[in-house]
Amino acid sequence: MSNATNTQVLLNSRPKGIPQAENFTISECPIIPPKDGQVLIRNHYLSVEPAMRGWICDAGNYSEPVGINTVMRSLAVGEIIESKSPDYHVGQHVLGMFGWQSHTTTDATNIDRVIDTSQLPISTALGILGINGLAAYFALLEVGLPKPGDTVLVSTAAGAVGSCVAQIAKIKGCKTIGITSSPEKIELCINEFGYDKAVSYNSPNFVEELANACADGIDVYFDNTAGRISDAALTLLNQRARVVICGTASISQWSPIPLGPRVERHLLVKRARMEGFVIFDYADRYHEGVKQLSEWILEGRLHYREEIKHGIEEAPDSIAALYRGDNLGKRLIKLAD
C-alpha cells in the first residue's frame, strides 16, 4: 500500500445554515500504514445523515464540531485490508466513524461492530441496521411508547428514519399518518411503507389536510422537522400524547433562535410529554436493535429503500441534497465493491 493514495473529503469552511458543496474540498494524501493495535480499512460505503449539519456548525450540539481542513465525520462500512490488532483480521467487514475517505487507518477500538454479510447487504449497516433504523427503533419504542390503537404521526415520513418508524408502529398495532413533501412521496409512504394516510407540507391547505387526516387526534408525534410543520401537529395532540424530538430538519439556522408559537399550553392542557432523542445515548443497546430489525426485515415485515450515489465526488453536495428533499431512500455513497 506504500504507493496508494487516500482520497478524502475535507471541511474547508464553516457553513451558515445548511452545508453546501463549496464548504468541502476533495483531497488526496498517502495511505498511513497501521501501527500496533490499528487496522487499515478500505471503505465501501459512506453515509450521509441530516445530523451532519449539526456536526459541522460552529455552535456545536451533542458532539464537537468537525475541524476546518479535517476529514468530514461520517459513518462508513468497509473491509479490513491490513490488521495489526489481535481482535480483527483481514477480510472482515466493519462499521465505524471512519469519515468521508476512501481508506481509514484507525485504532481497532474505534470499530463499532463487525458486519454479518451472510443475510443482508453491508450497506444496510448504514441505514436500516445503522443509526437511522436504530433511531427509529429506540426513539419510538423507548420515548414514544406506542400502544395498540394509538395514532402515530411521523414527519419526514418517507425518509430513512421516518419510514422505519411507521413500519415499527404498524407492527405494534398503531395507525400511522405521514407528513412528507410531494405527491410522489405520499404514494411511496402509503404503497411501500404502509402508512394509513399521508399529507404534503407543501400543500396550500396543509394545516386543514393534516387536521382531517388526524381526525382522532395524535397519540405519538415523531418529530423530525420542528418549525411550522410541528406547530400544526402540536395543536392536534390527544391527552397523554408523547412527542419525540428526533430532528429539526426544517430549521436552516439556529442563530438567532427562530421564534414561533409557544408549546407549553398544548403540553399542559393535554398533559402531554415532549422529549429529545439522540441515538448515541443507546450505543450499549445497538445489538438489541440490530437483532430485532434484522428479524423483521427477513420476515418481510420491514422494508427499506437505499439511494446509492457512486464516487466520492458525490459527497460534497450530498448533505444539501438531503435538505432539498432530492433523495428517495437512505442516501449512501458507494466507493468500492
TrEMBL record:
Keyword vocabulary terms for this entry: Oxidoreductase
Molecular-function GO term, any one: oxidoreductase activity, acting on the CH-CH group of donors, NAD or NADP as acceptor
Keyword Metal-binding: no
Cross-referenced Pfam families: ADH_N_2, ADH_zinc_N
Signal peptide extent: none
Positions of the Enoyl reductase (ER) domain: 20-333
Domain of life: Bacteria
Protein name: NADP-dependent oxidoreductase
Species lineage: Bacteria, Pseudomonadati, Pseudomonadota, Gammaproteobacteria, Cellvibrionales
